[in-house]
Amino acid sequence: MDNLEVDSLVFSVTYENYIKNIKQDKQNKTLGQWLIKDEMIDLLKYSYVYLVGSNQMIVKKYHIEKFEKSDPSKGYTDPDKKCFIFSKSEDLFVDFPAVVQARHYVHSSTLDNAQRISPDQVNVRMMNAKDSKSEGTKSKVQPLSARDKLVEVKNSLFKDKVFKDFSVIPSLEKQVDDGKSAEEVLTNYFDSLNK
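RE: above sequence
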């Protein structure tokens, strides 16, 4: 990728690390620990956080103030790696077009102009991320859970529909586990709301 197109770093976190390090800003406003070339550091103005297991959702944007060498007093111990210090952060819930395992470099306009994810979808994806171990460690033979199937069908066939009552999700999952297709379960559910 041409460096002129890049001003942002995208990195991934697990749900556990999201809760621990990202959801609330850390007091020292320092994040990460990466091997980054000096010429890249001069280009990077923003960083975005990708939540593993969330069906490719970005959850946060940071405004990078500067990079520093890993500082052991802040809990970063690898002297060859760099952390960034941010001036401010904002919650940002948008889709990212790829699975992020290693860091990605992008232009901020790509994500700033992406369509926002609705609050009910954010909640569903957060629950998926919480239940997920890691997109990188999922083996091909692991079957999709009932929730995964429902989320996939909801995202592809019922994008415009809104979940108003999350307490119904376990009963919808049970119907899928009992052998009904996720498509049939969601069709019945959303039809019942229209009556």
